[in-house]
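Subgroup meeting minutes
Present: P.N., E.W., G.H.
Scribe: E.W.

1. P.N. recapped why we're keeping a running log of single-chain structure predictions: easier to compare across weeks, and new members can see raw inputs and outputs side by side.
2. G.H. added today's entry (318 aa).
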Amino acid sequence: MESQSSPRTAVLMGGESEEREISLQSGENIAKALRESGVEVETYDWHPRKMRDFLNAGFERVFIALHGGSGEDGTVQAMLDLAGIPYTGVDARSASICMDKHLSKILVGAQTDVLVPEYLCISVPEARTRLAQHAPDRWEDSDFLSFPMMVKPARNGSSVGVSLVESPEQRDEAVRAACLSDDDSVLFEQYVHGYELTVAMLNGKALGVCQIIPKTKFYDYDAKYLRNDTEYLTPSGLGGDFDALVCRQAEDVACALGCTRGVVRIDFLADAALNPYFLEVNTVPGMTSHSLVPKIAAHAGYTFPDLCRLILDMARQG
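Output recorded in log:
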């Protein structure tokens, strides 16, 4: 048990994004694990409207368990920096960069040798205008991508608003699903058929690779959180040399995007020839019973309470 003089600690969870319910699950799991490891913590159901109340509550240290929205786009991190409160995870700048799938793809493509799927990005207002006009050539600028393709919000997680598009007739519905907010963008991305992979990172170093084998067409929201038939292989089952390659590439991505602080998760797809393609970074990865970081960390020798305690002990200001 920590001493009586230990900083008053909050697990910040909930939030205003479409991932709120998953964040609440992560936050409760983290709080339980920290208590098991001897840390006194309180949970706090966050919303941007409660910023003043939160800052007046007197917390001295924060474990961020917010997925998406203001908890993962750098807003909460910037607030905590200004308030002088140490927090877990990446700093505000890195959070903002990694939240934007479009920007992160540009930076990874420019600064590393890691492959990135071909893509097109348009603003949500532009996408809604095209939907309303019903012009026959409204998506012709995405025709350089072959089917199937993915259509997704550029700034969201947990596969919310993500669609696998297998024919031209499905694009309108997929774009509507991806138009979550006016300050977002819609990403058309070439689908890479093969293997779904993720790498758990601790302070910029890879802990291991997990291959995800969903029974759905792709690793969607149901496969992530609701179904119990998704398979997870750690190591990936694709060979030690391949896992080592993906780990090296994940470390290159983390360096390029500045997300070398705390625990993050980096997602890849590999084609049939085992060429890995970078997809995105999750700077506040899930900590639910279905989540991948705890699975990979367990294989690397970390119990869940130990992992949460380690993350908390690394809390600092940006």
